[in-house]
Amino acid sequence: MKSSELLERIHQLADEKHAADVKALELAGVSSFADYFYICTAQSARQAQAIADHIRETVKKEAGVSVLGAEGYDTGEWVLLDFGDIIVHIFSPQLREYYRLESLWEGAPEVNFEVSSSEHRQDPQ
């Protein structure tokens, strides 16, 4: 499965668990360690864990792709899943605002997905 196809599937899976404020950045040409960052917000630690579990288990089952590394799962404030070419970041609203990861990579083009329900679930502030 190509990185772009896996990214699309990750997006679908996060959307199924109601991830909000989704952004995907194309890092190819900007960074040598990954092709994409997938960034989303979860409204609770439990939701962040559910999103991470759903992505990890389904991608392994469907595509045979395992997570190379994971961090932050226990606290659920910032869960990172490393799939090699794709790094998934699942943030709490507070940490998303604090770290503003997208602004650190503002030179990276944003990936546009087909319209999904997640685009209507913005971070409540």
UniProtKB/TrEMBL annotation:
What job does this protein perform?
Functions as a ribosomal silencing factor. Interacts with ribosomal protein uL14 (rplN), blocking formation of intersubunit bridge B8. Prevents association of the 30S and 50S ribosomal subunits and the formation of functional ribosomes, thus repressing translation.
GO CC list: cytoplasm
Q: Native species of this protein?
A: Desulfurispirillum indicum (strain ATCC BAA-1389 / DSM 22839 / S5)
Q: What is this protein called?
A: Ribosomal silencing factor RsfS
Q: Which family does it belong to?
A: Belongs to the Iojap/RsfS family.
Subcellular location(s): the record lists: Cytoplasm
Keywords for the protein's UniProt record, in alphabetical order: Cytoplasm, Repressor, Translation regulation
- Per the record's keyword annotation, is Acyltransferase included, yes or no? no
Q: How does it assemble?
A: Interacts with ribosomal protein uL14 (rplN).
Q: Which residues form the signal peptide?
A: none
The record lists the lineage as: Bacteria, Pseudomonadati, Chrysiogenota, Chrysiogenia, Chrysiogenales
| Predominant subcellular localization, coarse grouping | cytoplasm
Q: Which domain of life is it from?
A: Bacteria
